[in-house]
Task: structure prediction
Amino acid sequence: MHETLFASTEGRFLGAGLALTGLMLLAFGIGWHLFPDRILPYAIMTGLNLIIGREAGMSFGYASGFGHAQVVPLNILIETIQVLVIYPLFVQSTRQLIHLRTLQPFVARMQRAAESRGGTVKKFGIVGLFVFVFVPFWMTGPVVGAIIGFLIGLRPWANLAVVLVSTYVAIGIWALLLNELNVWASTVNQFAPYALFLAVILIAAAIQFLGRHHERSARNEPD
Result:
């Protein structure tokens, strides 16, 4: 079973993603043991990225006094791991190679999002996928983008390359924007960067709420 699960290209992606996840958790564990006060902001930044999105995680990082050298690599790692783990799990679940009941609602939501947006992306191919991953709206981003790439028939390596390059470009642009906003806010008041962070949180939460409401409304529409 395990040999079959990791035999395909997507399976090897999953293996790499799990390895990176293990290394990141190990690094956090060692850091927490040696210098917990320093590692806590990194843990918070990671959690915010996973739960709300890169905008929240990166905004918190800059508000905490981190620079590009700390914020950008961590967020690149987090989003790379998300793609390398969730996208292969979705693919392997469609091939009946893995059954995780706890993930089924999430996988089903990802598939609905990918299918509803896949038609638009398919018209423009790789360029459409790049733009889809780059644009920061509800249920866009690297994970759904990778699933769309799979559904429209892109080769695994091409799909992964387009998704990750678009993700890294987006992170770079967000880094420049948020850092400049943070520098400006710090000239207004020492607590202004955290006010900016809270504003980003509220905007991201509002986008998620509206997106979920739209998704529920679309599912409840009569055929």
